[in-house]
Amino acid sequence: MRKRLIVGVTGASGSALALETLLQLAAAKVETHLVISQSAQLTIDHELGSDGVGRMRAAADHVHSCRNLAAPIASGSFRTEGMIVVPCSMRSLATMAYGVGDSLLTRAADVVLKERRRLVVAPREAPLHEGHLEAMLKLSRMGATIAPPVPPFYTRPASIEDLLREIVARLINWAGIDPGGQMTRWEGLS
Ligand SMILES: Cc1cc2nc3c(=O)[nH]c(=O)nc-3n(C[C@H](O)[C@H](O)[C@H](O)COP(=O)(O)O)c2cc1C
Questions:
Q1: How many Å lie between the centroid of ligand 1 and the Cα of residue 87?
Q2: Ligand 1 and 91: CB distance under 6 A
Q3: 4-182 fold
Q4: Is 1 a residue whose pLDDT tops 90?
Q5: What span, in angstroms and rounded, lies between the C-alpha atoms of 98 and 16?
């Protein structure tokens, strides 16, 4: 069976990271289940243009409406490796930290946590107040990997595309998928 992963996209800045995640997972032959929050549609339009949502949908194997709480990914009996939430807004972060499954995105994350599967969260906000930090700590204690999309400058990226590729490859790696040649691995100073 192909590995399955849920990709949650929220209204935080960083839509290009979400698209890159879907493309890398497709290249890794992972079956993706995409769920985009309502607010994310606005951010994606602004950052990637009016075809942004369409490009994401085309890169995914399955697309679920955020309002469809009867989708397969709303149940723990549907087997997946886990979920990547990229980019993750502070709103969705808080919702996940308190187990509020009020949309398919946050319900799917809650299921991944309760089933002890991998939840990789890429929160994007700066600076962070105590409430943001507390929500991250809470999620981390519940087993999530908190992975802000910080660039690995030691890979000497030459372009924004290089940065996106390296950041996303790490998210995928933490989700238990081998990113192959997309990720530069440190082998010491040469
Ligand atoms: C262009 C744009 C960029 C945004 N960037 C962020 C961000 O980086 N982090 C964040 O927490 N919210 C950001 N927001 C606000 C969220 O979209 C907003 O809080 C929304 O309610 C999040 O809902 P969601 O978690 O359901 O997607 C941004 C909004 C817009 C329009």
A1: 9
A2: yes
A3: Rossmann fold (3.40.50)
A4: no
A5: 27
pLDDT bucket at 190, cuts 50 / 70 / 90: confident
- Mean confidence (pLDDT) of the chain: 97
- Nearest alpha carbon, ligand 1 atom 9: 12
For residues 133-160, average pLDDT: 97
Please work out whether the CB of residue 37 comes within 6 Å of at least one atom of ligand 1: yes
Query: Is residue 96 lining ligand 1, measured as CB closer than 6 Å?
Result: no
Query: How many Å apart are CA 15 and CA 48, to the nearest integer?
Result: 7
Strands (E) in 50-117, as ranges, are 62-64, 82-88
